[in-house]
Amino acid sequence: MMTRKFFLALAAAAVALPALAQPAAWPDKPIKFVVPFSPGGVSDGVARLVAQHLGQRLGQPVVIENKPGVSGIVGTQSVAHAPPDGYTLMGGTITTHAVNAFFNKNLGYEQVKDFVPIDLVGMVSNVLVVAAGSRFDSVQQITAELSAKPDSLTYGTAGPGTSQHLSGQLYQNISHTRMRQIVYKGGSQAMVDLIGGQIDMVFETVAAARPMIDGKRVKVLAVTSARRLANMPAVPTMAEAGVPGFEMQSWQGIFAPAGTPAPIVDRLGREIAAIVALPDVQDKLRNLGVEPDGRTSAAFAAFQNAEIVKWGKVIRDAGIQAE
Asked: Where is the signal peptide (predicted)?
C-alpha cells in the first residue's frame, strides 16, 4: 500500500511540474523602451508619453533607454538583436525603419524582417523656414533663384535620411532645382546657423521650429503636409506654394523584435491605440508636433512598406548611393 501511494504521489508531482515551470503571465517584469535618439526630441517625448500610460495599463514599469547614434542605427540595432519576449520595445521613425537602408550598406539590421510593427502613433510635419531677415518671402522666390542659379542656396539637415534631408530632396526632385545640403549633428545647430545667416533655409519639424517662429526669429514659408495644419492655418502647404504633389511627413511608431509572440503584439497594439485615442494624450502629441494616428500592426506594416517604396524612388532618382 505504501509503495502504491508513493508512486501515485510521484505521478501527481510529475503532472504538476510542467505547470509550475510555466512562466508567469506577461508582463511580470519591467519593459524596456529604446529610443534611438537623444533625450529632448520628438521621439523621446512621444516615448515618454506612451510609456507612462502603458506602464499603468500593464501593471509594470516601461523604462525609457536612450541609445542615440548614427541616424538612429545604434539603438535600432540593439532592438533587432534583443530577445523577442515582449520585454523590449522601441520608438521607430521614417529614418530608422524606411530609409536608413538606402544610405547605409552595412546597416546591421533589416528594417522589415527584423521587426514587428506595433502601433503608428502619429505623423510629424515639417515647416520650411528662413531667417527673419531673409530676402525670401515665398517658396516661389526660392524656386526662381535656384532655377536661375543651381546650387546657389543651402539647406541645413541633421544628416542623410532625416526628415529635413528628405524634405529638401523631394523639393529638388519636384521643382527640378539643386541646392547644397549642410549637415549638422542635430537640427538645433542648423537652426542656430539659419538665424545667424550661415545657411539659407531649413525644413524643420513644427515642434522644433515653433519657438523660433513665435519669437519672430524665423519666417515660415510652407508646411510639408498634404493639408494645412490646424495650429498654423495661414501657412500654405508646399503644394499650394508652387511645388505640386509635394507631401512629406515623418512619423513616430512603436516596434518590437521580430518573433515577439502574436498575443503580446496584439495586446500592445490594443493598449497603445487606446492610449493614442485619449483626448489628453492627443493634446500632448499635438504640442509635440505629432498628429495622432493609432494604426496597429497590419495597417502599420502596410504603411511602412509603402513609405519604403516611395522614399526609395526619391532617393534613387536623386542618384544617392548607399555608403
From this structure: 1-21
Please report the domains of the chain, with CATH numbers, ordered by start residue: 31-123+249-317 (3.40.190.150), 125-223 (3.40.190.10)
CA 259 to chain centre: 22
C-beta of residue 135 within 8 angstroms of C-beta of residue 262: no
Whole-angstrom distance between the N-terminal and C-terminal Cα of the chain? 78
Transcribe 28-95 into DSSP letters.
SS-EEEEESS-TTSHHHHHHHHHHHHHHHHHTS-EEEEE---TTTHHHHHHHHTS-SSSSEEEEEEHI
Q: Model-level pTM? A: 0.82
Which residues are 249's β-sheet partners? Answer: 125
Query: Is 258's pLDDT higher than 50?
Result: yes
User: In sequence order, which residues have a C-beta less than 8 Å from that of residue 322 and are 6 or more positions away?
Assistant: 101, 102, 103, 104, 105
State how far the alpha carbon of 228 is from the alpha carbons of 214, 222, 308, in Å: 18, 9, 25
pLDDT tens-digit readout, 30-82: 999 999 988 888 899 999 999 999 999 999 999 999 998 888 899 999 999 99
Tell me the H-state helices in the chain: 2-21, 42-58, 73-80, 94, 100-103, 139-148, 163-175, 187-196, 206-214, 262-276, 279-287, 297-317
* 4 Cα distance to chain centroid: 65
Per residue in 229-240, pLDDT tens?
888 899 999 999
Angle at the Cα of 286 from the Cα atoms of 34 and 203, rounded to 5 degrees: 80
